[in-house]
Amino acid sequence: MKVIFGLRGTMTQIFDEQGHVVPVTPIEVGNDCVVVAKRTRKNNGYDALQLGFGEANLKRLNKPMEGYFKHSGVEPTRVLHEVRMDSTEGYEVGQHLGVDLFKPGDVVHVVGQTKGRGFAGGMKRWGWHSGPRTHGSMSHRRVGSTGAGSSPGHVLKGRHLPGQYGNERVTIKNLQVVRVEPEKGVLFIKGAVPGYHGRLVLVKGRG
């Protein structure tokens, strides 16, 4: 399975070979994604890669993590994340992963953190329609009924109500790689990707 970390860029448009405008999101990888450690089924009971991304601020690196990177023989990274794999064959500790892992036409899944919108009302969070706006009604954006009366006597779990909206881990599946630019370290993916520009995302090949 192909896997790589990158930074989400701002959405843009490119033209395909037929001259059609395609909305794309650039993923900036550069030379910042590196394999820090491997987990194998034989030694650990499962297959996984520990991937590092970005350059760490050495002043903020604590002693345990400093020793961990020294043992791995890899320069300390800003982000360290473990990704489960079907197999870790073909990957080595210290190997830098680039966008050349992918090619145009590949189908990928993108994992990212959505934009946080804070405490939001039901209309914004769940797409409710508004209440009546005439004939003296004061219930324009309110919740309304939340259930029955004395039986069951409480609001059932899972009810669509106002609350925290966004800032959650989301996977967008089956996106298509449109263009790969190895010299710039940029991957162009068709469509939208979760989060705001500059946020870390994980790109996984399907299968």
From TrEMBL:
GO terms for biological process: translation. Signal peptide: none annotated. One of its GO terms (molecular function) is rRNA binding. One of its GO terms (cellular component) is cytosolic large ribosomal subunit. Coiled coil: none annotated. Residues 126-162 are annotated as: Disordered. InterPro entries: Ribosomal_uL3, Ribosomal_uL3_bac/org-type, Transl_B-barrel_sf. It holds the Pfam family Ribosomal_L3. Keywords: Ribonucleoprotein, Ribosomal protein, RNA-binding, rRNA-binding. This is Large ribosomal subunit protein uL3. It comes from candidate division WOR-3 bacterium JGI_Cruoil_03_51_56.
